[in-house]
Amino acid sequence: MSTTKELNRSLGLRLVVVVVIGNIIGSGVYKKVAPMAAELHSPGWVLICWALGGLITLFGALSNAEVAGLLADTGGEYAYYKRIYNRFFAFIYGWSLFTVIQTAGISSLAYVFAQSLHSIGPIPEVLPSLAQVSLGGVFFPFADLNVKLTAILLIVILTWINTRGLIAGTGLSTGILVLVFAGIFLIIFLGLSSPEADWSRSFDLKTTSNTAVTFSGVFAAMLSAFWAYQGWAAIGFVGGEIKDPHRNIPRGITIGVLTVILIYLLVNATYLAVLPIPALEEVYTAGNKIAAIEAVKSFWQTGGLFISVLILVTTLGCTNATILASCRTYFAMAREGLFFRKASSLNEAQVPANSLVFQCVWACILVLSGTFDQLTDMIIFAVFIYYGATTLGVFILRRKMPDAPRPYKVWGYPVVPAIMVLFCIALFFNTIIVRPREAGIGMILMLTGIPMYWWFMRNATKQNPSAE
């Protein structure tokens, strides 16, 4: 093991932006336009919901950027919450990352990667006779076991790559991101220049069902968009490895989120220009189709393989970026005695390899536990609790530390952070109503942090009786 106790500050602004974008662009850009179309029945309103979801995400990102600029450190919100709230709340957040938010994100992305690989070349079935075996009728660990084992293999391989060093991990993310950008802009160019494209249709606010668009419909559609925007806050986890973090984290978050919003609006306008709403609704009803693949096939008959490979590369990149960033929080917790002690060590490459291993094991278990939709619904429910807590921290820190130097102050204060807090509260209760099972599972996993906090604190006291 390395005798060096501190992480290397090796990431400049360019790599900060790469990590931000790499953690966001995953499966949502290809899949979520279909459920949104089925909910709203109007292409114009689908684009509005992509814009609104991006706006709310930007409000959260701008609020987070002020906090990050003031308190930047390894662990992200875990480090921030100790200053804003207390050690217990910070631990519950870190434990939620481990049990639900980040590990389930890794699992769901790896799952889509495996599905895409299966669509290109069928993966042989594994133990099909056990597919209906369940745990309480909720979890079916052996269903689609061939896909799940492929996802697990991907997680293991990417974890190993990231144990070789931070530059190795970000280098892979940079190369993948270049390919993803090239592929997405090729879709936009070919799609909008094809004879099948009707650019005006993308902005048509009329519904095919001849019914009015409701507030609940808009809210439900935005939930789909939020999965596509999820992941931007992960840059805070590697705050201890960023050069001049108090400036580069706020700038990197802002540049990254604005870039993604622009890309999402362009590519979804393309989908809507080449596929009418009934066709997208059919994709959603089928369940086993991906909207992006059907859209590309409409103007490029042999483009199915291209888009399948692009989805493969995109989910590979996002899975890698999430694995790279997430384990740093558990490393920060372990150094304080609030996580498994072995996770506090660095290897020869000055990487928290043991923290990566703990993350890998639990993410693989989550792959076996459920489906893609179960995992993503749990993530969105859990993560918006903490988006709200961080945004509320803007108000608290302005009172606690009014004279502290702030490299960045959130635009539109106090209106912008207030809107974000209120939206997080609304989403929390809405998810409990419309997705009670996923909300319940997510809440139970997060609340297991209460006895674990007591256990870690007791062990820390035994090892250091003078510790408070």
UniProtKB/TrEMBL annotation:
Pfam families according to UniProt: AA_permease_2 (PF13520)
Bilayer-spanning residue ranges: 12-30, 42-62, 88-113, 133-160, 172-192, 212-240, 252-274, 305-331, 351-372, 378-398, 410-433, 439-456
Keyword Transmembrane helix: yes
Membrane topology according to the record: Multi-pass membrane protein
Record's keyword terms, sorted: Membrane, Transmembrane, Transmembrane helix
Gene Ontology terms for molecular function: L-amino acid transmembrane transporter activity
Localization terms from the record: Membrane
Highest taxon listed in the record's lineage: Bacteria
GO CC term (a single one): membrane
Family annotation (PANTHER family): AMINO ACID TRANSPORTER, SOBREMESA, ISOFORM B
Name listed for the protein in its UniProt record: Amino acid permease
Source organism of this protein record: Rufibacter radiotolerans
